TrEMBL record:
<dbReference type="InterPro" id="IPR000634">
    <property type="entry name" value="Ser/Thr_deHydtase_PyrdxlP-BS"/>
</dbReference>
<comment type="similarity">
    <text>Belongs to the serine/threonine dehydratase family.</text>
</comment>
<dbReference type="GO" id="GO:0003941">
    <property type="term" value="F:L-serine ammonia-lyase activity"/>
</dbReference>
<dbReference type="InterPro" id="IPR050147">
    <property type="entry name" value="Ser/Thr_Dehydratase"/>
</dbReference>
<protein>
    <submittedName>
        <fullName>Threonine ammonia-lyase</fullName>
        <ecNumber>4.3.1.19</ecNumber>
    </submittedName>
</protein>
<keyword id="KW-0100">Branched-chain amino acid biosynthesis</keyword>
<dbReference type="InterPro" id="IPR001926">
    <property type="entry name" value="TrpB-like_PALP"/>
</dbReference>
<dbReference type="GO" id="GO:0030170">
    <property type="term" value="F:pyridoxal phosphate binding"/>
</dbReference>
<dbReference type="GO" id="GO:0004794">
    <property type="term" value="F:threonine deaminase activity"/>
</dbReference>
<keyword id="KW-0028">Amino-acid biosynthesis</keyword>
<keyword id="KW-0412">Isoleucine biosynthesis</keyword>
<dbReference type="InterPro" id="IPR005789">
    <property type="entry name" value="Thr_deHydtase_catblc"/>
</dbReference>
<comment type="pathway">
    <text>Amino-acid biosynthesis; L-isoleucine biosynthesis; 2-oxobutanoate from L-threonine: step 1/1.</text>
</comment>
<dbReference type="GO" id="GO:0006567">
    <property type="term" value="P:L-threonine catabolic process"/>
</dbReference>
<dbReference type="InterPro" id="IPR002912">
    <property type="entry name" value="ACT_dom"/>
</dbReference>
<dbReference type="GO" id="GO:0006565">
    <property type="term" value="P:L-serine catabolic process"/>
</dbReference>
<dbReference type="Pfam" id="PF00291">
    <property type="entry name" value="PALP"/>
</dbReference>
Amino acid sequence: MIKLNQIYQAKQKISDFILKTPFVHSSFLSDFLQTEIFLKCENLQKTGAYKIRGAYNAIANLTQEQRQLGVIAASAGNHAQGVAISAKKFDIKAVIVMPEATPLLKVSATKNLGAQVILHGDNFDEAYSFALNYAKEQDLNFIHPFENEQIIAGQGTIMLEMLDEINDLDMILAPVGGGGLISGIASVAKQINPDIKVVGVSAKGAPAMFESFYNKNIINSKFVRTIADGIAVRDVNKINFDIILECVDEFIQVDDEEIANAVLYLLEKHKMIVEGAGACAVGALLHKKVNLKGHKKVGVVLSGGNIDVQMLNIIIEKGLFKSFRKMCINVTLVDKPGALMALSDAIKEANANIVKIDYDRFSTKLDYGDAMIFITLETKGKEHQELVRKILFEKGFNFNEI
């Protein structure tokens, strides 16, 4: 594990630059789980993620000669912004290599902080490999996103802040990709109070660290696929793996559906925008994958809030359908004046709101003289949707749900 004095030194170095983020009680989750749940809101950190802590600590520890050469990093976005803003603070050159599929929000934010951005590879590991070679070619200092003791020490300051506010926490949940965050958190927890249970939560679509943990041996993945791009790491590194084996008590996986549910839950209940990686631990709690028996105060790290707007829109739309607040139907009508009005009158009688409507007169599945109408409706829950179906059926409309 990382020595506690290293993490206290990191806290001293970064305290004038990073934000001490809120550590708030979640009444919604606490009532749902009958355990006191507290959310560490690193989504409200400068640059929108915890990564700035480790990045700033690593750059602050460079010699003057190293700073003159400049720095380079590989990142899916959050570490990129942390390195970029830290380099800007020290007035040094920064090059960031990002996977080609990195959301535009994160690419633009990194460029706006003054860094040069190179897009390369299909995932973090391919970007990482390119960045290592580029660092040697250009004589730049490589700032690793998680396989670096100074990075880990910086991330560990999150745990110090949580314990400063609530010193009797008995469980911590944190998302895991490369493992830098949970390595720092677990190092602090186990040295201050070994009885604190440390639980890592990873995405099912990026299973390397999860499988390695339970096999007690490094097992890299062949590919990764998850909406939690911040923890979409294919390969396991030895430094973090060793700390995780030593200090982490349990590992849990969540799938993309559970992650999306958590993103939407945090948006609706707490009015907080949290990215997929940051919502993983809440996803594990919502779907009751964590054994809370015997635990009274649980800290949950919301690691970041830099979610792509298009992804957020998809999550919201799918969430509305799953929670029976939207439904989509197609109805076959005789293509003549008044037919659509009769349909809209039936929908009006059901007190549903039409938000989108499309026509298809040319499908080979239609009889001549018919039209297929696609309608998206706003509804008020499961019972309301049953009423819509009942009225349409009684009015004689032939419809299917999409």
